[in-house]
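Question (not urgent): is this output format expected?
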Amino acid sequence: MSLKLDTPVLVVDDYQTMVRIIRNFLKQIGFTDVDDASDGGQALEKLKAKKYGLILSDWNMEPMTGLDLLKAVRADAGLAGIPFIMVTAEAKPENVITAKKEGVNNYIVKPFDADTLQKKIETVLTGA
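Got this back:
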């Protein structure tokens, strides 16, 4: 099964340089519909306004963290089914366990490259 490259993707990160890097990787992979938000609260507003097929969210953000965003998405019946990949600089096992428990679909540790991102997205979106 191949990736649907017209799937709308929401990138959530408070660090604009990271947003640009992820946007560039998504463009290299072939995604054409990419939006971004600078924190979980802004992401929730965008999620209510548009139907996304994938969320890529940083963990460490203020005032609403990626983990808080994940919990809010999973608690909302209209959003709960959206695949969610957590992006973080911390590879602590307890963070991975916490994110899994809250319903994250996959986890990427920074730094990463376009190939790694593509593999994680393929796993989440196609089950490959």
